[in-house]
């Protein structure tokens, strides 16, 4: 393009601007996000934490897992400080550059006023040139060059006019585009070094980094599990459809994540040759003489022995085997989740008749049982009360007596404080506080199930082969709501009563209404839903004569369950005013008008309710799609697991099974974000044969023992209606279309058969 120039930065000023802005864009956010900060120690949070010996050891282990944390923080601080120092130097350089290369003003350089004569300009130039000439002691070459250029601009008439008009002695300049790179990049002397740098970065370093990342990524699945490990799981679960729990532990220990060849983080010590055989002698039924590969490999036997030692809570040497145990244990939840996925995929393949044998449901449930066992460090046959701090096998005899049979944590939480303290009378007050803290934070799940056939006229009628949608709603609360004395809910209610008495006392009933509203607002969501269901049954006019249309609609709708108090409430009878003949004509007209208005209102109300239900059905899938697009969170609630070397979050499995045939109907859904409420939809195909079937919706925890729940659903499957192959209306339409096509559009209704034949000819 004419009048444009592309050039590199000769002076380097533009390059300094580029570096200054680029460095500032990096330093400001990195300083805000990456500057190391000391975590604030909240005293209230420390009081809520468990102070048992195992929890204290776990805190030490978590700190030791990050040995380079202090060094990394120091390195980050030095990098950020050095970056700000470089930024300050660049800012100083740019400020000096701006001062030296300010706007060119010849009058200011010659120290003459605007409109000065030529004589004054020459006089000032001679005076300043004697001072600034390079040959003089006080000379300055740059200042003398500016002085000469200013003198030439003011003594030449054309240059002076250009400067006064365009601000430039040379006239209007061409548009120039500067490249913010120094000019030495394109010089011949430096071309070899520049090309070598480009080749090193783009042809060697970048392909190497991408290749290393690709080679590592193709070896792992989406859950960071080795693909070779997944193939091994498929092989063993297909080989053994019904697998016992100890067999599952053997396969888990044979995972290739615990082998040195596949995982560089594995440490092989010379002391293993002595310590591992000694550990094997302490563990019964380890099956170390099994000859199956890779179950007979040394790494597999070692990992299996460490898992058994963890479940038996055997003390290991802290510098050797205990470190290996911590590494093996923290990998297990991800591997067990991969096992569950593999078994569920095999079951789906068996349904599709791609594999001959169907894995048993006990196999996948044994995999699920193994996860809380490893997290808590307990066998399944042990009492779940051992998950509480300071509770050992010696204390279990106080839970089961002639008067009481306490076998679960939920039963223990429902006792009164005096009974709980009497059972744990051998513990000190501080230890008892730790027990109450941990138990109060444990989950209490309200498990609600609803089944229906979506997009059907009768969603509660199940036909053979229909797709049944089971909606599972989970409400998570702390176990403290079960405490037999001074629960959290009771405290809130008492506080609301006290506030209402103070504010609304003497208002004449207004305070009680406010208290009821506050109680309803503070109560959990599931209680509010139950109240709404009860109130729905009371809607509608009480003294209205039902129309025929309304009665037919009410028969098809399911009536909500009402409480005995509501059902036994006396109904107000209509007042008898005599025979209908005794009513006046005006009164009869009024009654007719009232009935017509009420019927219209019922129609409008039913139409509005239908629109609301349709809108809710339309909105629910959209909201679920938005949640899927947002991604699944991995944060829920921290688990009290002092023997697990990392922080563990509460996760759950939800699935539907047939306990009679021992089959799995839906693949397990992994719930990873149950903070307060979670809704899951499970779909399966109804059986082909009409009958009454009972299926079980299962909820299993991957973190706690004894917190599993099951909910039975009964489906009265009826025979599916036959789909009509031929419809008489369709046949009539086809015949009419054929006749119209044969007759043509030009034939009127008055034409004769001869005219039609002539037209066809």
Automatic annotation (TrEMBL):
GO CC terms, sorted: Sec62/Sec63 complex
Chaperone is among the record's keywords: yes
Chain segments carrying region Disordered: 492-622, 720-761
SMART domains in the cross-refs: DnaJ, Sec63
TM region(s), chain numbering: 15-35, 74-92, 192-215
GO biological process annotation, one example: post-translational protein targeting to endoplasmic reticulum membrane
Annotated membrane topology: Multi-pass membrane protein
Basic and acidic residues bias spans: 513-522, 720-729
Subcellular location, principal: endoplasmic reticulum
The entry's keywords: Chaperone, Endoplasmic reticulum, Membrane, Protein transport, Transmembrane, Transmembrane helix, Transport
GO MF assignments: protein transmembrane transporter activity; RNA binding
Regions of compositional bias (Acidic residues) in chain numbering: 577-596, 732-741, 751-761
Pfam families associated with the record: DnaJ, Sec63
Presence of the UniProt keyword Endoplasmic reticulum in the record: yes
Localization terms from the record: Endoplasmic reticulum membrane
Listed Basic residues bias regions: 529-546
Record-linked Gene3D superfamilies: 5' to 3' exonuclease, C-terminal subdomain, C2 domain, DnaJ domain, Sec63 N-terminal domain-like domain
Ranges of residues in domain J: 105-167
Full protein name: J domain-containing protein
